Amino acid sequence: MGIYFLLGLVAVLAALLVSCGEERPAAAEEEDFEINRRYQRGPVDLRIAISKKEITIAERVKMLIETRVREGYQVNLPGFGEKLEEFGIVDYSTPTPELQEDGVVVARRFYELEPFLSGDYRIPPMTVSFWQEGDTLQHTLQSDTILVRVMSILPQDLSELEIQDITGPVSLPASYRRLLIISAAGVLALALVVFFILRRRRREREVPPLRAHEIAFLRLERLLAEGLIDQKRYGEFTARVADILRFYIEDRFGLMAPERTTEEFIEEAGEGLPVDEKQKGILRDFLIHCDLVKFAALEPSADNVKDTFDTCRDFIDVTKMEEVKEEAA
Prior knowledge:
Radius of gyration: 29 Å
Largest sheet: 7 strands, antiparallel
Helix content: 40-55%
Distance between the termini: 61 Å
Structural class: alpha+beta
Shape: elongated
Number of strands: 13
Number of helices: 10
Strand content: 15-25%
Order of helices and strands: HHEEEEEEEEEEEEEHHHHHHHH
CATH class of the largest domain: Mainly Beta
CATH topology of the largest domain: Immunoglobulin-like
């Protein structure tokens, strides 16, 4: 009896190990996508899945196009260029089709999409064509429009805060006499100052001061809202983005980026900027390109402008994570 019991136990353990190694069922894959649309016509089943319903302009969204077709039929997935309506296509992959035990062929294509501006993005209807092997007559199956909302980077309560525009350096008082007068007035008003400070502490706790990356993101959004891209003022837009990144670096790392030439700043950043070499290389190429636009009258294209904006936003986003960790510590 003991031998049979041990053999049975081994068999149960082997079955458990096999079941643990099996792939996740298709239904579980849908948990990774907030939007799942299915369409069916004849022998073809079409699925369009989107990872998120709402994202910010600092995020990307994944899209899956999947077809299931009975054996004996062929199907063509829709193709796109570098863009899908308002979305830019960052990357895509097409795994090898799978033949399931029931004779159904499953084909998938994954896309990684990136927004440019905030707003409601519409993924247009997609059409797949299919036909029976040996037959030249083609049929089509079409999806409907899918809506993805791209929101502002900052929370709504912060987006309404006023930030003064970038200004030049402030000069020192003309004489010590004026400084002494101001100091004396400050001493006389000390009681009032203390009173107002205590009164404002509660408000400061409710609305914390903006951090460097929040200020930079807010400036980027306000720059987009000015409509320079729609007016094709690409050179001015590029120069403004460069200024925003330089002031962010000064606020974030304490480097005097706005007052330095690009050569001086690159030399200083090589020693004092706490980012990896890849990020330093991206920053160097970014600043050199912006200098060519600003000083060498290089006329950027619409794609150049998008790349410039994305580089600035991505650099802020990467270094923002480190900033948040430092404050949490």
